[in-house]
Amino acid sequence: MEKFVIFGNPVAHSKSPQMQNAGFDNLKYDAVYEKHQLIDGNSIKTTFLKNKYQGANITVPHKEHAFANADEVRGLAKKIQAVNTYINENGKVIAYNTDAPGFLKAIESFGKVKSVLLLGAGGTAKAIALALQESGIDVTVLNRSESKLEFFKNENITSYSWENFVAKEFDLVVNSTSAGLKDDYLPCDKELLEKVFKTAKFAFDCVYGKITPFLALAVHNGLEIKDGEDMLLYQGVLAFEYFTKQKVDENVVEAMRNGLKA
Ligand code: NDP
After folding, report:
1. When you count CB atoms within 10 A of the terminal residue's CB, does the N or C end of the chain come out lower?
2. pLDDT in tens, 36-67
3. Are 215 and 200 members of one domain?
4. Which residues of the chain are modeled with pLDDT < 50?
5. Rounded to the nearest whole angstrom, what is the distance from the C-alpha of residue 123 to the centroid of ligand 1?
């Protein structure tokens, strides 16, 4: 039986095991997926190999450590400099970032999106910004503090702090800050947000399982909204495809979605 794992700290709250195990059950794939609380991020590769895991997901706060410790990083993850998926390929640790394509898949339901205002400049924002840029979608970053904008400027992505933001028209506004996760904060000034919402069509929040103040304000302004559940699902589905070395159909995706909700 193959063994898979999610590394994080904390990790007890993670829904990845119930989602991934539902996928394995549906395919009758002989594997088990477990949680592993990892304290020292720099021990991630040795822990992965020592425990004979075939694949892993990596969550907060170890995505950068996982990037730095991998034997080989593939795809957009090289630019993002953070990974959420490990695969054991003949004893070599291969790393991918599936958050980025998972986000793109999640916003497909909105239809055509040409321009995005991305709130936040943390690890998730890096993945989303580069995924959008690579897809030819115009992306502008707005963050509370100036200090995290350097990464985006180096990638030629227009980026502002709250102090110097210049509003324009955006199709989609994305909250990738942690505002609204465990509090009732908006990700930026209410007036600024309402001004942007006046011309936007869609709002997406990376936080999942609740209507955050950001999404509530978007609804109030007539926007179509979506929370982060599909992003979580699709990053998991893409990792699952790496784990099982096959493309999966809608049956498996639905089983994984149900697993997530169980
Ligand atoms: P980071 O800690 O790397 O970044 C947090 C960002 O949020 C920073 O830009 C920070 O700004 C900003 N921020 C925090 N608090 C506030 C606030 N009160 N007002 C305005 N800005 C704030 O977090 P991640 O990028 O890892 O995660 C961000 C969010 O995305 C989390 O809510 C997480 O749960 C969610 N997420 C969802 C996923 C999914 O699959 N649905 C996947 C990954 C993440 P500053 O620079 O000024 O500190």
Report:
1. N
2. 999 999 999 999 999 999 999 999 999 999 99
3. yes
4. none
5. 8
